[in-house]
Amino acid sequence: MNQKEVSELRRRWRPEKNAVSRIYGCFVNCNREIVSHLDESLGTMPQEEADRYLDLLKKALSGALGKNLIDIVFSTQQVADSEEHRLLSDLRSSALKDAQARESFYRKVIDALDMEDSSYLLLIASDAYDVPHRGRDGEFQPDSSETVFSYILCCVCPVKLGKPELGYFPGDNEFHCTVGQTVAPPELGFLFPAFDDRTANLYGALFYSRRPDMLHQEFIDAVFHTDPPMSAAEQRETFQGALSQALEDAYSVEVAQSLHERLADRIAQHKESKEPEPLVLTAGEIGGILQDCGVPQEKIDAFRENCEEGFGAGAVLSPANLIDTGKFEVKTSQATLSVSPECSYLVETRVIDGKKYLLIPAEEDVTVNGQAVRFVSNP
């Protein structure tokens, strides 16, 4: 799925836009026991409460593609005949009205999911989207729908204990100390099937994780039974390992500066272009950047081989998962130097009397522990 397709579905989760009739789910305690079931009509509950449920579900379609939103791909065999795909398809085709399928799904999630002894609310809803035709000008034509996209959206929300507070109980006409339980934004969720080319793709799903470094692979394995994708943190670690192992002494501060700057520029240009497809680069394209930095060809070839070994042959990489565009940091065992990425060129390396030094020009405004200081010229 691309960004336009995700955004189009997100807009569905406004109260006046969607075709959701009921909200289903269950409240699970820290012992993995179902405390209560949820099966309520969206139309009969208070508007504020309905809006809150829709907001929670909509958050499962938020974040960055390739980082928070991960494509799940089913094999042909799974789609043809597999327990996991059959269950998801039953939930979708029945619009969640199949109580037995719902219970089977709840149990599959509860038995697998590790929420670190936290209670949680498992929410799931079904929607049928009358997909409008998009004209040549890119505008929707509401009265010219060609297909209906039926799908389910699920999210898992931690339930957190609040602080003890004194509350008034009208029945007793007394005040008592109570501890409330609050539903937090979802930690993970998914959309099934995928909305590729604005139509249903039964070979795919879109998985959501609030924290890119924690994809809850146990959930992915239980619900989708597919090889879990690499998290953003794992991708960055693998990329950095491929660089350092291949380039060795050729991986200088200057090469790191140039590579960071070029990747950050690609990310910024892609964002400005508003291209819906995620930005991806091949190991060969990154190798071209290294070549421009003067890295020897044999080390570039070694980098490509490392990428094939770490990411798989022909894999494409998301630059947003490889670097942090918000900072450029240089560390030694004694100190950490952090500068704005656009000023990374100010950092220089020198070897003086056999010792390695990091140099950065100091402007007039220099502070130490928040206090302005001055430089004293050496005699």
What can you see in these coordinates?
The structure is a single chain. Strands 1, 2, 3, 4, 7, 10, 11 and 14 form an eight-stranded antiparallel β-sheet that branches. Strands 5-6 form a two-stranded antiparallel ribbon. The protein starts with a helix and ends in a 6-residue tail after the last strand. A hairpin with a 4-residue loop joins strand 8 and strand 9. The chain has eleven helices and 22 strands. The protein has helices at 3-10, 47-58, 76-80, 83-93, 99-112, 217-223, 232-247, 253-273, 283-292, 297-311, 319-322, and strands spanning 22-28, 34-41, 69-73, 119-131, 133-134, 140-141, 147-161, 165-169, 174-178, 181-183, 188-192, 194-196, 199-201, 204-209, 281-282, 316-317, 328-331, 336-339, 348-352, 355-359, 366-368, 371-373. The model has no long low-confidence stretch (mean pLDDT 88). Helix 4 crosses helix 5 and helix 7 (232-247) packs antiparallel against helix 10. 32% of the residues lie in helices and 29% in strands. The longest helix has 21 residues, at 253-273. The chain is α+β, with helices and mostly antiparallel strands.
